[in-house]
Amino acid sequence: MAGHCEVSALCFEDVVASYGAYRALNGLSFTLGAGEALAVLGRNGVGKSTLARVATSLVPISSGRLDVLGKSIASLRTHDVARLGVVHLPEGVGLFSGLSIEENLVMRVGGSNSLERRERLSHALESLGALKDRRRTKAGQLSGGQQRLVAVSAALAAQPKLLIADEPAMGLSPAAANDVYEALSKVTSSGAALLIIETRLGHIERLCSRALIVSDGRAVFDGEISRAHEELARLL
Questions:
Q1: What are the φ and ψ backbone dihedral angles of 110, each rounded to 5 degrees?
Q2: Has residue 125 got a pLDDT over 60?
Q3: Model confidence over 146-186: pLDDT tens digits?
Q4: pLDDT of amino acid 93
């Protein structure tokens, strides 16, 4: 496992993480390779969102090994992990409703200098399709699916090396969910790694060939997504 950790985008080795006396992760182990798309599945409350928070240093680990993009993040803060090239789209992420689409994008695309920020903003706007002509529209006037598309476009424009998306299509219509997953499909084409957290299979099968099923803070299945149906049905 150690050798795999050094070359992986994300590596959990017997990771334990707790909220007070409650163990959310209980010896979780898996690796995610560069350019790979991994589906993390399981019912609510089994540790999937904690996995994302741990990987971005929002929640510290109690024990085990955790490497992100080849580096141990044990002593890093969340903004340090972001600087490595990690972008986290948490569950139910929204925009600042009083700001325009463009203003929200400016706050999210990042960049080390003004030229790079302008280029990333331009890229994000172009990826919005018809929404780019509404760049001055307040985010609060957008539908939930449109808001999610803006957030995903900003994430892609930030040029992540690892993108973690927690239930990106939650609460969206089938059409809006299709749009969000179509946008996410561009992540791995650039060589970045993609980890998508969902409760069930569905849209995620279009993007990921491999699935990790989590139960009680442990991995109970790690293999081809086509073989995950039976195990997931048993747990749900």
A1: 70, -160
A2: yes
A3: 998 899 888 888 889 999 999 998 888 888 888 889 889 88
A4: 63
Cβ proximity of 184 and 28 under 8 Å:
no
pLDDT over 70 (residue 4):
no
Q: Which two tokens stand for residue 159?
A: 């040029």
Provide the β-strand partners of residue 68: 10, 71
The yes-or-no verdict on residue 208 having pLDDT over 70 is yes
The per-residue DSSP string of the chain comes to -HHHHHH-SEEEEEEEEEETTEEEEEEEEEEE-TT-EEEEE--TTSSHHHHHHHHTTSS--SEEEEEETTEE-TT--HHHHHHHTEEEE-TT----TTSBHHHHHHHHS--SSHHHHHHHHHHHHHTTGGGGGGTTSBGGGS-HHHHHHHHHHHHHHT--SEEEEESTTTT--HHHHHHHHHHHTTTGGGT-EEEEE-SSSSGGGGT-SEEEEEETTEEEEEEEGGGHHHHHHHH-
What are the CA-CA distances from residue 120 to residues 114, 147, 195 (Å)?
10, 18, 22
Cα–Cα distance, 165 to 231 (Å, whole number): 22
Strand partners, 10: 32, 68
Q: State how far Cα 38 lies from the chain centre.
A: 10
Percentage with pLDDT > 70 across the chain: 97
Give the up-direction half-sphere exposure of residue 232: CA atoms within 13 A in the CB hemisphere. 22
pLDDT bucket at 212, cuts 50 / 70 / 90 = very high
Decide if 168 contacts 182 (C-beta within 8 A). no
User: Is it the case that residue 2 has pLDDT exceeding 80?
Assistant: no
Both structure tokens of 13: 């080795």
